[in-house]
Amino acid sequence: MVTQTPDTGSTVRSASGRAEWVPDVLGDDYQRTTIPLGTDPDGEGQIEATLVRFRPANSRPASAGPVLYIHGRSDYFFQRHVAEYFAERGYAFYALDLRKCGRSTRPGQTPHYVTNFAYYDRELDEAMRIIRGESAGAPVLLVAHSTGALTVSLWMNRKNRSSAGHGVSGMILNSPFFDLPGPAYLRSIVLTAFIEGAGWLRSHSEIPRTSGDDAYGASIHSSLRGEWDYDLDWKPLGGYPVQFGWLRAVRRAHKAVQRGLDVGVPTLILRSKLSSRAKQFGDEIDVVDAVLDVTQIQRWAGCLGDRTTVVPITGARHDVLLSAAKPRAKAFAEIGNWLDWLHTYLDEADT
């Protein structure tokens, strides 16, 4: 079970620009540093991101390189078991709470609100600079969930086309958010045009919510039917409200993926075998993706470019790595197999 305690302390950065690490809410072996981002282009004041690292006591030097984990929407990094898995395999583990998310949320700001996914490039670039600076320039393995997977796919496409390169060895995407689930009319030309207009004219207006949006949250949080304890202020059971401006940014990001990207590195995609749009909690919620449509994930996976491997996990939840014990173990086994392949592939590419 994951447990944590509140922490209202602030983090500073040294005058030299080097990251200064302070204790994190996850307790022993976890530290965090703040990444100042200046004025919010979406007009909500000064913003910052938060980079977390896992440094277990008496740990061996990281021989496999660094990992950077990026959360999804209405989410933040709390998954100790994920950090421990990668550390046991010899990785130096880091996780990034994006602007206005989790540790990076500040009073008066709209949680997770952004009107252009390219804005996230700033914290991703700076996180990579810090990580590679602490890892002798070793390439970074990206691990991302849901909207975070959409975010890093677009970022990788932009970096792969730039002269500076990306410094990434591969990606593991956990239920990537590549399309809008639900009835076909939600993806129609008419509704897409409406979202575009509303996102421009009423960007902060919230989209009406439906009842039962907390069924997935109920399946994972320890206060109800789950085994995971996390901060409900940072990850509400029913998620944060969605604004038209954010949804417009998402639909534009979806279009970019569906036109085809070139991320430039091998990618492993994990997803549940089945989806369900059930709004009430029941046993079914525990063994399906109750958030996204897995057929959409499968459909658009090939649009990333390079080598993409898709592995359906029977009995997995939306966050595959928060599934029940058996499918979770299967997912980690698949990750291990793919990492073994990736190391061989990269070694052969260097010869």
Layout of SSEs?
Elements: E1 22-23, E2 30-39, E3 46-54, E4 65-70, H1 80-88, E5 91-97, H2 121-134, E6 140-145, H3 147-160, E7 168-174, H4 189-201, H5 215-220, H6 244-259, E8 267-272, H7 294-300, E9 308-313, H8 325-350
Parallel strand pairs: 4-5, 4-6, 6-7, 7-8, 8-9
Antiparallel strand pairs: 1-2, 2-3, 3-5
Helix pairs in contact: 3-6, 4-6
Protein name: Alpha/beta hydrolase
Domain Serine aminopeptidase S33: 65-271
InterPro entries: AB_hydrolase_fold, Hydrolase_4, MAG_DAG_Lipase
Walk me through what this model shows.
The chain has 351 residues and is of the alpha/beta class. The chain has a single domain (22-350), classed as Rossmann fold (3-Layer(aba) Sandwich), CATH 3.40.50. It is built from eight helices and nine strands. It has helices at residues 80-88, 121-134, 147-160, 189-201, 215-220, 244-259, 294-300, 325-350, and strands spanning 22-23, 30-39, 46-54, 65-70, 91-97, 140-145, 168-174, 267-272, 308-313. A nine-stranded mixed β-sheet has the order 1-2-3-5-4-6-7-8-9, with helices on both faces. The radius of gyration is 19 Å and the shape is globular. Mean pLDDT is 92; it is low at 1-16. This is Alpha/beta hydrolase. It comes from Antrihabitans stalactiti.
